Amino acid sequence: MPIARRLPAAIAALVASTLLLTGCGTVTPEGGADAETITVVDDQDREVTIDGPVERAVVLNSYGNEFVRAIGAGDTVVGVDRASINRLPYLPVDEADVIAEGLDQINYEAVAELDPDVVIMPRNAVWREAAEQLESFGIPVVVATAWDYAVFDETVSLLGQVFQKEEGAQAVTDFSSEILDVVADRTEGVEPVPVYWETVDPYLTVLPGSGFHAIIEAAGGTNVFENAAGGGDEQEEITVDPAEVVTRNPAVIVHEFEPSATPTGQERFDSLGAEITARPGWSNVDAIKNGEVYLANGWATSAVAKSIGALYLAKWLHPEEFSDVNPDEFLERWVVDFQDTDFPGANEYIQQYQAGA
Length: 357
Known about the structure:
Rossmann fold; single chain; 5-stranded mixed sheet; 2 domains; alpha/beta
């Protein structure tokens, strides 16, 4: 696929490695062409053998559940973590199917009672403990880290092999590449726009190494805190001095709050926008003076390894170059075609806030 070869560095970081789509795992027939044994190499370089086909799966992490559903294997999910059921109410599970309160709080007896063919979890879960605890039940654990934009293609490919949904996995990666192609084509040669990206908590912003930093650059922006010291964790975030935001004077402010498919509600947007624009001294920031403050539910802007977020941001930063591009249409396709659920409208997840408007 030519995309990865011609995209600029920031986009290539988001695409990760489309050319390595099949490098994360393999399906190994054993005992003849009709055998159902599936052998994959997960993202911790562990060879895992699964008695397929996978008809019952426990999937931890909401992004993992989104990807499993997107490739066409959502009907196999019989157990999830608390965050997944809270964020994704359209999953085919209910309260009785919650087998983990967190990625480090797994009820292994409950998992065993569900009798899954496989358990999927990200690398920041207690996967070593889980593999050891579930080994006696004959339940394999596959590590697939769907929240990590840098291994998006490999993760989708791995899940496609686990569930034998390779065509569905290819459709997901093709959709992401389509979005990033649009972003790359329209941002080539543009003047970068300074951006302050805030995540969930007040003054919590992103650093190089973060997926959010990557989409700022991909969208034709510059992260006003790109040279800040700190971070070091796998999310690469830092809490900054509010006065420093004023000094760095971003032209655009984005606040992404926790992801949830449940419509946000206008009160949340209004109160959040009012809080941000009323921060002491911030009335002098260009983004607030010019009404360039954007509030986003992470279910929308972090979807498809943040590629949809990159498209929205590019539209906000460079409206002329994207005058004929509607990011809402791509979000609707992701929700309807890949998540197989109703789309209440982009305004339920993303809004521009203008103080006094």
